[in-house]
Amino acid sequence: MSMHESHTHDDDGDLAVFLIGLRVNRPWRPDLWMPTFAAMAPMLTELYTAKAAAERGEGAHPGFLSHRTLVGLGGPTLVQYWRSVDDIYAYAHDPDRAHRPAWLQFYRRGKGSGGAVGIWHETYAVPAGGAESLYVDMPLTGLAAAFGRHETSGRRQARLGRAA
CATH fold of 6-146, please? Predict the structure, then answer.
């Protein structure tokens, strides 16, 4: 029997999980959906750059921690990890950040697109202790990529619903 390397995420503080997805409704009209698809990369670059600058002591931390991209039949979904819901909204509404202009441009383009592209998002506030993770033989991903990780040992029981 082989031993598996298993980890969990380090942080038990509050966090927010933000899901955002895109659905191409008219694939024959890339002129209408591609700008929306292309708008995400500059936002992620901006978020990771601001996070790295804050970690070097060169500015305020945006609250963004990490992300991962999932691809499915309905289109791509980004799972983002943040410190708080307030941090997500502060970023989304900041006129000096990439999101606000992209958001406004999406709505302007959408008026004449006939629904060529759809977007959706969901936001979850997770109180301290409300997240459980287990990674077996996995590279850093999910909450472990956002918060760091530590090794688990022996038979691990889920933390949710149990006293510490």
Answer: Alpha-Beta Plaits (3.30.70)
